[in-house]
Each structure stands twice: as C-alpha cells, then as structure tokens.
Design a protein that fits this description.
This protein is α+β, with helices and mostly antiparallel strands. It has helices spanning about 5-20, 30-35, 40, 55-60, 65-75, 225, 230-245, 290-295, 310-320, 320-330, 340-350, 365-375, 390-400, 405, 475-480, 490-495, 505-515, 520-530, and strands spanning about 45, 90-95, 125-130, 145, 160-165, 180-190, 200, 205, 210-215, 255, 260, 380, 410-415, 440, 450, 460-465. The chain has a two-stranded parallel sheet with strand order 1-12. Strands 2-4 form a two-stranded antiparallel ribbon. A two-stranded antiparallel sheet has the order 3-9. The chain starts with a helix and ends with a helix.
Length: about 525
C-alpha cells in the first residue's frame, strides 16, 4: 500500500503531537518515509521506555491484541518447576524467564560476572575446542542452572569475566586528538567447574583445548518484519555482494558458495535462507529464536519442541551420580517408575519411550504457544526520530558516503509474507499470526555475515550485520547502550572503531571515518542514534 506525501505527513504529525514529541518534520519525502522504520504495518511512534514492547498496527488490525498480550505474559513471567501456567522449568536451564536475557525487550547488558539471576545478563556461553567446534557434552547454549536434585553442567559461581583494554594501531586516538577506549571480555572457567566430561563428537579433549567466549542477546522487536523479507530478495543481496567483490573476506562458504546457497545456508526442510542470530543459525521465525528459546532457555517443552534441552553426556553423568540418585524419586513421587534409579534418571532426562506418557506431555499448551508466537511476530519497531534535524541529515549523508550503508543496507521491501513453519505447527501464512505484506522497512542490515577480525573475536569470526533500527532508544528502554556481540562497545564510537582491523571488511569505512572532523563524526553518531 502506498501513501501520498500529504497523508503520511499528517499521520506523522498527529502521532508526534500525541506523544508530545518535538521532532522536526522532515521535508524530503524519502526521509519522511524512512521515519516509518517498520513500514505502515510495523511501526510504533512510542519513544518512551516501553518503545520495544508495543504491538504492531498489523496485530491491532487483525484483532489479535488480546492474544498478543497473553503471549507477552509468557515472555515476561518467571517459570517455576510446577506452578501452572508457568510450570516446566528445567531440569536444566539457562534463565528462569525470557525477559531476564532481554532487558526491556532489547540487547543484553555488559556484565562483570556471569550469574543467571543478574538482571540484564543476556550473556550466553560459547564453549568450543580450538577449531571452533562446540563441545558435544554441553548444549549449544550451555546451562548453568538446575532444578534439584540435578546439578548444573557448569558451576557459574566459578566463572570469571575479565575486561581487558585494547589499543588499536592508531593508539585509540583520532587525528584531531580526541581519544576513545576499547575493551573486550575474556572468560575463564576452571576445569573443576565442569560437571560433564569435556567432549567433542563423543571424544574427550584436554582441558587446555577448551575455548570460552560470550555472546549477548539482541533486541527482539521487528522480528516478524525480518521474516517477511522475500527469500529471492535476500538471495539477490548475496549475489550482489559476491559480484561486487568488496569484502576482503568474501562471503561465508557455509552460507553461500558458487553463486548459490550452500546447503547449510538454508533452514531445515525449507528453501528459506537463514537470517536470525549472529551465527545465522535460524531461518523462518516460526521455528527460529523465540520458538527455540522458550524451550532451550527455560527448558519448557511445547508442541514443536519436545524433549529436554539436554546432552546424552549429561544424562549419563547425572544418572551415575549417587547424590542425584538419592533424591530422584522425591523429585517424581507421583509417578511409578521402574525402580532402577540409574535407568530411570537417564530415561527421564533423555525423554525416551521408557518413561510414562504423562511425563512426555508438552508443558506449554498449543494455544499458549500460539499466543506466544503472535506476540513474537507482532512486536513493532520504534519510528526513527529527529530525521528532520540538520545534523542528523548530515550524518545520514556521511553514513552513505563512508560506505557504512553497504553492509548496513538501509531498506528492504517485504513481499507477500507467505511465511512457513518447518515444524508444521502453523500452516503457511497461518491466519492466527500477523502478517506484513508489501512494506518498505528500514532495518539497516544486509542480513549477511562479515568478518571484523576483532580481538578475542566471535566464534568462527563470521557475524551477521546487526540491524541498527531502534538501537538509539536502548539506554531508555534497557538502561544500557552496549553494542556488538559481547557488549564490548559501550558507545557508537567504540562500536565503529571495533570495525577497524586491517583485515576487517569495514576497514575502508573506518579509515574514512577517522579522517572526518569531530563535528562530522558526531553527526554520524547522532544519525545512528536516530534510526
């Protein structure tokens, strides 16, 4: 659907007046259009501390507001072991609620220690060998909490996070003398903190080969809009970047090879290309971060994710633990198991066919899960702010001239939004979920992975271009402005300068940014904070 300039101006003016805003109205029609970051169907003009939490107009238009609110309830509430409707926590878990990882629905916060119960701790541990292969004895997102009598795979009280200073080749200083600070985290987990054996592919590895990194959660607003970007459009972006050849490191061959998708670049049994998470592990939203996280973060089962988020190595360890054995039948007094405590523990943890059917029922009902996904697909994107400001406009121009907009692609056009669900719970384009057809959206990401070659880098070095939309409200909504995959950047300037390694795909843009006058650097920052 298209608007005329007059209609869009009036709607924007009314929205800003209602919110009490003083944002200058842009006069450039293209810039005015960009104010609707999530398009007509996906934008909220709320710029307060709840800006990341609003339903999209599409939710309201479809009469799904009450279901959205009920789904939100499951995101915000703390899960317990056996109190309905929030039962099912554990037996192992990472957090007891979703919002614990996403303060204010946004990006996780920088932490000086690793404690699951610390508010705003969005950190997930990444534990690999020296070849970047996950330890198979731990889950991909390792758990540090357990419901008694079980014990956590990693004792989080022994985890240390140390923030180290980094000095780049320019001495952390711009040519005009202005300085900046760069810091990065190193994580230490002693060998005796691991409850499980250290294994890769079932084979034990020495403790000296274990590598630990951090990844933080990202903002979850606008995820439904990302899902509505056509697969062909995303493929065209890969083809363009391959043909242009600007990237020093090329494109990740695990995602794209020989002018087409690599098998691992597509998700599950669909042709849907991956577009979610730093590592591009997820494709369709209906079987992506939210559907996955409500299960593996809290270990609450639902109709598409049955079985505990668990490894066989953990189950074997726990089933042979005398302390777990001594209390296990108190954990399940209402069920008549076999009496072979070792076998009963193992079978329960693995959730195989040897346990009573009652224990294999989903802890989150189908209706509850459906409401949860209405909420997840229905989160709006905050409108861009202050785009009529002269300094913001200067920053917008420079952002493009510097080449930042190549990877942080400003806009996309959604298609018919004929979404899929590889799990088969939702029918294609299921009317129970909101949809976003034919919207121009402004996420500022190409949804492709690139390499920045940062000190103590992200696993594999490949990281999806983070969408920039709405991030300028992070301090208001979450209490923190931390950026990048492990919250190493506390400011926009720090985030930019972490792109500056000599082998980084963004090196040329950073070199040019350094040469700008301070007023122009500030304008670029102000623009990034505005979108």
């Amino acid at each position: 659907m298209k608007r005329t300039f007059g209609i869009i101006s009036m709607g924007l003016l009314l929205a800003m007046t209602a919110c009490g805003g003083k944002d200058p109205i842009p006069t450039d029609p293209q810039v005015l259009e960009e104010t609707y970051a999530g398009g007509e169907l996906g934008t909220t003009f709320n710029s307060t501390q709840t800006a990341y939490e609003d339903p999209t107009p599409a939710v309201e238009n479809a009469g799904l507001t009450s279901r959205f609110k009920y789904g939100e309830y499951f995101f915000e509430r703390t899960y317990t072991q056996n109190n309905e409707p929030f039962d099912g926590l554990g037996p192992l878990y990472i957090r007891s609620s979703c919002i614990a990882c996403h303060p204010g629905y946004g990006h996780g916060m920088r932490m000086n220690r690793y404690r699951a119960d610390d508010w705003g701790n969005g950190y997930l541990l990444v534990v690999t060998d020296r070849n970047d292969t996950y330890l198979s004895s731990l889950t991909g997102m390792p758990q540090t909490k357990a419901v008694p009598p079980f014990k956590a795979p990693i004792d989080e009280s022994k985890i240390e996070i140390n923030w180290l200073s980094y000095v780049d080749e320019w001495g952390n200083r711009f040519p005009d003398g202005e300085s900046y600070n760069l810091t990065y985290p190193e994580v230490y987990i002693p060998e005796d903190a691991y409850y499980v054996p250290l294994q890769v592919g079932g084979n034990e590895i020495p403790y000296s080969d274990v590598v630990v990194r951090l990844e933080s959660t990202i903002g979850i607003y606008g995820t439904g809009l990302i899902d509505a970007i056509p697969d062909d459009s995303l493929k065209a972006q890969y083809q363009k970047e391959e043909n242009d050849g600007y990237m020093k490191n090329g494109l990740n061959p695990a995602m794209w090879a020989g002018g087409d998708w690599a098998p691992t670049g597509l998700y599950g049994n669909t042709s849907h290309p991956k577009r979610y998470t730093y590592a591009l592990t997820r494709g369709p939203l209906q079987d992506a971060p939210g559907a996955n996280a409500i299960w593996n973060i809290t270990n609450v089962t639902h109709p598409t994710k049955m079985g505990h988020y668990m490894t066989a190595a953990y189950a074997a360890t726990a089933s042979n633990d005398p302390e777990v054995q001594a209390s296990f039948y108190q954990y399940f007094p209402q069920y008549n198991l076999t009496g072979d405590v070792q076998a009963d523990i193992y079978n329960y943890l693995i959730m195989n066919d040897q346990i009573p059917a009652e224990l294999k029922q989903p802890e989150m009902s189908g209706e509850e899960y459906s409401d949860f996904m209405v909420w997840h697909r229905g989160l709006a994107v905050p409108a861009a702010r202050n785009l009529g400001d002269e300094e913001v406009q200067r920053g917008r121009q420079l952002f493009r001239e510097l080449g930042c907009a190549y990877c942080h692609r400003p806009s996309w056009q959604t298609g018919d939004d004929d979404f899929t669900d590889p799990a088969g719970f939702f029918a294609d384009s299921d009317p129970r979920l909101p949809r976003y057809p034919n919207q121009k959206i402004w996420p500022y990401s190409d949804y492709i992975q690139h390499k920045l070659h940062m000190e103590n880098d992200i696993r594999t070095g490949w990281c999806r271009t983070t969408p920039l939309w709405g991030r300028g409200l992070s301090a208001i909504c979450t209490g923190s402005s931390d950026r990048l995959h492990d919250c190493r950047a506390r400011t926009v300037i720090e985030a930019i300068m972490w792109h500056g390694n000599a082998e980084s795909d963004a090196r040329r843009s950073v070199e040019q940014f350094r040469e700008l006058e301070k007023a122009d650097r500030d304008a670029v920052v102000k623009f990034i904070e505005a979108i």
